[in-house]
Each structure stands twice: as structure tokens, then as C-alpha cells.
Specification:
The chain is of the alpha/beta class and 216 residues long. It has one domain: Vaccinia Virus protein VP39 (Rossmann fold), CATH 3.40.50.150. 38% of the residues lie in helices and 21% in strands. Helix 4 packs across helix 5 and helix 8 packs parallel to helix 9. The longest helix has 14 residues. Bound molecules: S-adenosylmethionine (SAM).
Length: 216
């Protein structure tokens, strides 16, 4: 209780967005999976893993929009970006912050249905799925369903970019094997609370893309 109170006080001193996020974490810690939004540094590490010619991007678990803003700043056109967020309050926040975007309150497992319903990119496959989901705290079946949904809407060369707070790959080896995927670790950044590592998932044989320069 004391720890919770201290954390609450420290978050209150930060931006209202941090407070919105933290309140949702108090309500649903497993689903939110972080006590504060990702840092700009982590956003840069995530975007460094986009294919160089990436045009159509889907973001899973938008939160307060740290990666969303970075994607727009990176040059992804609003009509080529689709954002899913399961938490209703965070979804409202995102929809108000990015009125130019399609932000859908939905479960990442429903991605193929959402893509079809929204008519995202006129039915063309996505080049990348950028995920802020807390995959590490999810069970095997949920992980499997989310990766399956992501690769159902990705182009053959497409990739899923994910971060994790853990020291190893956040997706179980058996899930990768079952779905015919391979994983590669990207940059690790200490400039995030907590420190985080980026992972890139591709279909087997499609993961030979150039690695971006390392960040500290
Ligand atoms: C660790 S937070 C990351 C938020 C944001 N991307 C960031 O980096 O600051 C995970 C987010 O995923 C959302 N989420 C959790 N499970 C989800 C699911 N099955 N489908 C869509 N969003 C989900 C949570 O509500 C939360 O906003």
C-alpha cells in the first residue's frame, strides 16, 4: 500500500498522460503491463526496426500514444496507420489525441476482422505491426493468437516489432515454431522505465534485414 502510494505521488508530479496511464494500470495491471508510458528513446529503438520502405503500419496497444506520435513524425501517413487499444479509457484518450487516425477499441486477437471492417489500406497487407502489448505476461494461447492475427495481415516480407522488459525473447519458442516464425533481438535501451529490449519477428527466412546501429 505504501509502495503504491509513493508511486502514485511520483506519477502525479508528471504529465496528465502518465496519470491516465497509471490509473489504468491500478485497475488492470496485467493487461496494461507497465506503470508508465514508454520513453521517446524506446520509441526510437522500435521505429529503427521498421522496414526502410514501410508504408502501412498497424500499432497494437497504443496506450497514451507515444509510438503513435513517433510513427506520424516518422512520416507514416494517417490513412496508412491503424491503432488498436483494448482499454476503453486509453482508447478515448487516443481517439481525442489523434482525430486524424483510425483508432479502434479492440482486442489484438481480432486484428484480421478489424482490418476487414475498417477497410484499412484498401485491403493491402501491412508492412509492419508495432506492438506495445505486454506479451511477456500473457499465456501461451494468447501469445499464439496475437502473433497469428498479426501475421495474417502482414505482407510476406512484413515484420512485427515488439518490446519487452525481460532478458529473453518475450514469445515462447514453441509459439514461434508453431507459427513458422523467427525472432531477432534489436536494440536495448536503458533510457526507459524499466529498461527494455526490442524484438523483431519475421516469417522464417525473411529476417535478414539490416540491423540498425546499437543504442546505449
Ligand atoms: C505496456 S502498455 C504500452 C502502451 C504504449 N504502447 C506505450 O508503449 O507506452 C500495453 C498496452 O496494450 C493494451 N492492451 C493490452 N492487451 C491488449 C489487447 N489484447 N489488445 C489491444 N490492446 C491491448 C493495454 O491496454 C496498454 O495500453
Amino acid at each position: 500500500m505504501t509502495v503504491r502510494k509513493t508511486a502514485e505521488e511520483s506519477v502525479l508530479q508528471k504529465a496528465p498522460e502518465h496519470w491516465t496511464f497509471f490509473r489504468q494500470w491500478l485497475r488492470s495491471p496485467l493487461s496494461i503491463a507497465a506503470i508508465s508510458p514508454s520513453s521517446q528513446h524506446l520509441a526510437r529503438c522500435m521505429l529503427a526496426e521498421l522496414p526502410p520502405d514501410a508504408r502501412r503500419v498497424i500499432e497494437l496497444g497504443g496506450g497514451t500514444g507515444v509510438f503513435t506520435a513517433a510513427l506520424l513524425q516518422h512520416g507514416i501517413a494517417p490513412e496508412d496507420l491503424l491503432v488498436l487499444e483494448l482499454n476503453p479509457e486509453l482508447h478515448r484518450h487516443l481517439a481525442a489525441r489523434f482525430p486524424q487516425l483510425q483508432v479502434v477499441c479492440a482486442d489484438a486477437r481480432e486484428l484480421p476482422r478489424i482490418v476487414a471492417q475498417t477497410g484499412f489500406a484498401d485491403g493491402r497487407p501491412a508492412d509492419a505491426v508495432l506492438s506495445g502489448l505486454g506479451l511477456l505476461s500473457m499465456g501461451r494461447d494468447t501469445q499464439c493468437a496475437i502473433l497469428k492475427a498479426a501475421f495474417a495481415v502482414l505482407a510476406p516480407h512484413g515484420r512485427m516489432v515488439q518490446f519487452t522488459y525481460g532478458p529473453t525473447c518475450p514469445v515462447r519458442a514453441e509459439v514461434l515454431e508453431e507459427l513458422g516464425l523467427e525472432a531477432r533481438r534489436g536494440q536495448v535501451t536503458w533510457r526507459n522505465v524499466p529498461p527494455a529490449a526490442v524484438w523483431v519477428f519475421t516469417r522464417k527466412g525473411e529476417g535478414r534485414a539490416a540491423r540498425p546501429p546499437a543504442e546505449g
